[in-house]
Amino acid sequence: MVKIFLDPGHGGNDTGAVGNGLLEKDITLFIALEINRLLQNEYEGVFVQLSRTKDETVSLDERTDRANQWGADVYVAIHVNAGGGTGYEDYIYNRLDDDSATARIRDAIHEEVVKATGFRDRGKKKANFHVLRETAMPAVLTENGFIDRKEDAEKLNDTQFLRTVARGHVNGIARALDLTKKSNLSLTRVTVDGTQVGAFAEKENVLRQVERYLGKAKYIVLERIGM
Predict the structure, then answer these.
(1) What is the distance between the alpha carbons of residues 205 and 200, in angstroms, rounded to a whole number?
(2) Which residue has the higher pLDDT, 214 or 77?
(3) Confidence category of residue 110, pLDDT binned at 50, 70, 90
(4) In the chain, what are the domain boundaries?
(5) Per-position DSSP letters for 135-176, written without gaps between them
(6) 109: part of which helix (H) or strand (E)?
(7) Helix (H, G, I), strand (E, B), or coil: what is residue 206?
(8) Whole-angstrom Cα distance, residue 96 to residue 126?
(9) Read out DSSP for 39-61?
(10) Of the options 3.40.50.620, 3.40.630.40, 3.30.9.10, 3.40.50.300, the CATH number for the domain spanning 1-175
């Protein structure tokens, strides 16, 4: 059994960063809910709690207290950056060594998010943030793009891209914690004019491929396959 605490930054009266018509609190909640859904659907023995599941105000003390009282094995805080830069970066507590257990978890998440999103890699960093300092378990804070940078904001305004951000987090968490895939997970293979274009666990991804090729291909074949 693995307990994962997800902390979508800000919420309620605290909007977080604002830019290009977007609010950080909305983006972080979407990503966290998607991470939760993927972890619960795809992996064995995973229990997830979130600091919030809706737009509500939750103090920093409440967030870390809940994680500590629950006995979480890992804490992941999801944020969006601001300040005119671009790309992805993440943080661990500044008193931790680069070969600590927390750093190893951060390394896996970092690599998988950058790989999944194509975000510019801004590096692995350290800070004295409350959620990194006051947690009794390994804690990582991710900064996913810049809300006040037009190029990043266009991506952050795309729900499919936010799902990709979530997928990167999930891949990193699963890799770092050596999570076990559910044995009954099935995929749908999509074949277009005799060529396989992919195999997907999520229904919406299958539909997206069908919509992409509908009207262009001679035939599209969907086939359920086990894993």
Answers:
(1) 6
(2) 77
(3) very high
(4) 1-175, 185-223
(5) -SS-EEEEEEEETTSHHHHHHHT-HHHHHHHHHHHHHHHHHH
(6) helix 101-117
(7) helix
(8) 8
(9) HHHHBTTEEEEES-SSS----HH
(10) 3.40.630.40
**Three-state DSSP state, 30:** helix
Q: Indicate if the pLDDT at residue 168 is higher than 70.
A: yes
Kind of pairing between the strands at 195-200 and 186-192:
antiparallel
Determine the pLDDT at residue 205. Answer: 84
Residues in the chain, overall count: 227
**134, 143, 202, 211: which one is catalytic?**
143
Q: What is the mean pLDDT of residues 39-65?
A: 96
102, burial (CB in 10 Å: exposed 0-12, middle 13-18, buried 19+): buried
Residue 24 known to be catalytic: no
**Which residues are CB-contacts of 99 (< 8 A; sequence separation ≥ 6)?**
none
